[in-house]
Amino acid sequence: MYKHKVNNMPETGKFITFEGIDGSGKSTLITEIKDYLENQKIKVFQSREPGGVPIAEEIRSLLLSDVFIGSAGETEALMMFAARFEHLKNAIIPALEKGEWVLCDRFTDSTFAYQVFGRGIDFSCVEKLSDLVHPNHHPDLTILLDLDTNISLKRITQKEEKLNRLDDNTDCFQDRVKEGYLKLSQKYPKRIKVVDATQSFDNVLKQTKELLDPLLS
Ligand code: TYD
Predict the structure, then answer these.
(1) What ranges do the domains of the chain cover?
(2) What is this structure's pTM?
(3) What would the pLDDT profile of 17-41 be if each residue is shown by its tens digit?
């Protein structure tokens, strides 16, 4: 199954992912970090999951639609990884091979947070899928924006954004996702760095730049 290598070139780029519950401010942060890196003459490929390439964007529309109401968590996870395989093979790996920095809004940590901790599927199920789909590709750094779910829901409502199917906090789903993320950060403390998203945006940005700086040298 695993056959990613496109040009068999060394991957000199860096793979940075951004995680957190909805309303944590990931998209604004990614835009600012992109500018920060480009100002230092680094080429950036900005993407998101599920999505990033046409097939994965189609899978995204399906996953976020009401068609998936009542689906098994395992089905969601399998779809996420199908989208991820396409994204890795056709966008992320080629970019890394070109020496670009990939800034990705969500990756496999989201599947652990949402499908494992949120929906209750087995941790080992997602671990196996991750080993199958990207055994040799893991983010160099993951920025986890941590935010209280009450604040995040307030922010989303203020922006008058429509909640998608997976953003709902019915039955404390978002609370379980938030706690799940924190458990992941304890399991992988070197890779996943927690940034307190209740701080001012300027502070969140400053702290994220400080976490990125060691990768720049
Ligand atoms: P999106 O509107 O992009 O949410 P956000 O702005 O918070 O990133 O929708 C993506 C949704 O998909 C989000 O609710 C999280 C969910 N998701 C999973 O449940 N599992 C996954 O593996 C990924 C990548 C996303």
Answers:
(1) 4-216
(2) 0.94
(3) 999 998 899 999 999 999 999 999 9
49: Cβ below 6 Å to ligand 1? yes
Cα–Cα separations (whole angstroms), residue 101 to 4, 95, 194: 18, 7, 20
Residue nearest atom 15 in ligand 1 by C-alpha distance: 166
Whole-number Cα distances in Å, 71 to 49, 163, 178: 19, 18, 22
65-101, pLDDT tens digit by residue? 999 999 999 999 999 999 999 999 999 999 999 999 9
Mean pLDDT per 10-residue run, the chain (217 residues)? 62 95 93 97 98 98 94 97 98 97 98 97 98 97 95 78 64 93 98 97 98 93
Distances in Å between the Cα of 130 and the Cα atoms of 11, 77, 84 are: 19, 10, 10
Per the CB < 8 A criterion, the answer to whether 102 and 45 are in contact is yes
Region class of 99: left (phi > 0), else alpha (psi between -120 and 50), else beta: left
Our answer on whether the CB atom of 60 is closer than 6 Å to any ligand 1 atom is no
Q: Which residues contact 177 (CB under 8 A, 6 or more apart)?
A: 21, 113, 114, 117, 118
Overall CATH class of domain 4-216: alpha beta
Residue with tokens 């496109």: 6
